[in-house]
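tool_call: predict_structure(chain=1)
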Amino acid sequence: MAAAYENWRYYDRPLAGRAAFGTSWKWAPPKGIVIRRDSIDYRGNEVLFYHHNVSPTIFDATVAQQGMDSVKDQLYNPLCDLAFGGSFGGKSFIPAGTLYGVHAGTDYKAWWLRTRKAAKAHSLSLQLHTAQVASIDRWKQSLDSLKTVAEEKSATAFAATQNWWKQFWQRSFVSIDQAKGSGTAWEMGRNYQLFRYMLACNAKGAWPTKFNGGLLTVDPVFTDTAHRATPDYRNWGGGLHTMQNQRLVYHPMIKNGDWDMLQSQFDFYMRILRNAELRSKVYWNHEGACFTE
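tool_result:
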C-alpha cells in the first residue's frame, strides 16, 4: 500500500490579483505579499507538516491602522506564534520519496509513504493540532501527546462518532415526499439536511463556522475558470468575520436545537471582549464595548 501527503505551500507562493481576497488584507494587500511556505519533512515512519507564524502579521498592521498602538500589549492576538499542522503515517509504513504534481491547476509536492511488506490490513493515521507556542518543539510535544490519546481511544472512537451523528439527526430534519425521492419539495428537505451536515462538520472547532462555507468549499477554478488561485482560496477569506453574515449561520441553530454548536460563536465574542472594551476606551474614553460589524 502507498499513500501520499500533498502540499501546494511547499515554497513561498506570491499572491496576485483576486487571490488576495482570500487573505485578511482583502482590498488593500501590500506589494509583494506571499503565502509563506510550510515546514514539511519525514519523521520516522510519518510525514510531519506545520506552519508557524512569524511577526509581523495582519494583527500588527490593523492595530497601527486603527490607532490602537497605545494599548497593543493588552490586546488579544490570536495570530502571534500560531502553529498549525499535523502528522500523517502508520507503524508499518516507511518513507518512499517525493514527487511533484498538479491539482486543479495548482502545483504541489507529495511526500509518499509505502508499507514495509504486504499485509491483509493496513492502518494510516492523520493527527492535527493548533496552538500558540513560542517554540515549535512545544507544539510537536503536544501533537505527540494527542497521538497517544487517540491511539488509546481508537477502539471506541468510531462507535462514539456514530452515536453523536445519530442523536444529531434526530434533533431536526425536513422530510418531504420521501417516497418520491425527487422534485422541488424533496430537494428543499435534502438541501436542509446537507446544510446541517456542513454545520455539524464544523461544530467542534475552537472558532465559529464561517459564513463562506467554513471547512467546506470547492477549488476556485471550478467556479470561475479565469480564477487562478490555489485551493486555499475562499471568497471573504482570512480573518474577516462580519456579524451580518454570521447571524444567518447561527440564528437557525436555536430553532434546530443545536445548542452545543452555538458555543464556539459565544466563545468568539468572549475572547475579543477585552479588545472591544479597549477600543471604546481609546476612542471615546468610556467603559463600553465596541464590536465592529
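agent: DSSP finds six helices and nine strands in the chain. Proceeding to next step.
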